[in-house]
Amino acid sequence: MMEPKALDPVWLGEYDLLLRPWEARDLDAVLRGISDPDFRRWNAVTVPAPDEYGAREFLERRAAGWRMGDQASFAITTEDDGFRAVVGHVGLAMIDQVLQSARVAYWVLPEHRGRGYASRALETVTRWAFRGELGLHRVELGHVLPNRASCRVAGHCAYAYEGTMRGAMPGVDGRMWDVHLHARLATDPAPDLTATAAR
Questions:
Q1: Domain ranges, residue 135
Q2: What are the helix (H) ranges across the chain?
Q3: Where is 177: in which H helix or E strand?
Q4: Would 173 be classed as within a structural domain?
């Protein structure tokens, strides 16, 4: 079996966004992101604790992911009043260079939602995953059924709905929730998101 190889952290500039590896100075943005009630509602047990320790763990794991070659994680940033603000997260996990596949996840801070940042960041990372150093063939996206916003983002980025995985993720209510599975292949047509970048 082929061992994962380390990935060189990269910066990706596309649309109105700059995606860069997470840094120690982003602790406050991470803390606000992982402690957001809406975010935690859909990610009950799959994220760190909503405190400073959890935020530091998030940053450490993202840095380790590049070194181990199993994750590629980015802070989503954009210009805001003359400085570059962190508006969210996008990243690939479960990178398998043998199967040429990965899983993608994203979140946007509450005050920046509704501006298309998640879609444009997802599209940027997807194109890099297919054409960049990774050269993946398939990227999967999963979300619990009630998370309609995530389903819309998947649709905007041409991630085809492939089915429902029953009881695939623990929910905040202690039950196992069903998950929509979407995926995109390197051979699928890419969407045109230029209109959403003008917002």
A1: 12-141
A2: 27-35, 37-42, 52-68, 117-131, 148-156, 194-197
A3: strand 176-185
A4: no
Distance CA 41, CA 45 (A): 9
Residue 4 lies in a domain: no
**Amino acid identity, position 148:** R
Contact 164, 182 (CB under 8 A): no
In a domain, 47, yes or no: yes
Instruction: Specify if 23 maps to a domain.
Output: yes
Query: Position of tokens 């998370």?
Result: 147
| The pTM of the whole model exceeds 0.70 | yes
CATH for 130:
3.40.630.30
User: What is the distance between the alpha carbons of residues 18 and 154, in angstroms, rounded to a whole number?
Assistant: 20
pLDDT attached to residue 197: 47
pLDDT tens series, the chain, 199 aa = 566 788 999 999 999 999 999 999 999 999 999 999 988 888 876 678 888 999 999 999 999 999 999 999 999 999 876 678 999 999 999 999 899 999 999 999 999 999 999 999 999 999 999 997 899 999 999 999 999 999 999 999 999 999 999 999 988 888 999 999 999 999 999 998 875 544 4
Q: Which two tokens stand for residue 27?
A: 């602790």
How many domains in the chain?
A: 1
Cα–Cα distance between 130 and 137 in angstroms, integer?
6
The answer to whether residues 117 and 76 touch, using CB atoms and an 8 Å cutoff, is: yes
For residue 158 the two structure tokens come to 């041409």
Beta bridge partners of 170: 176
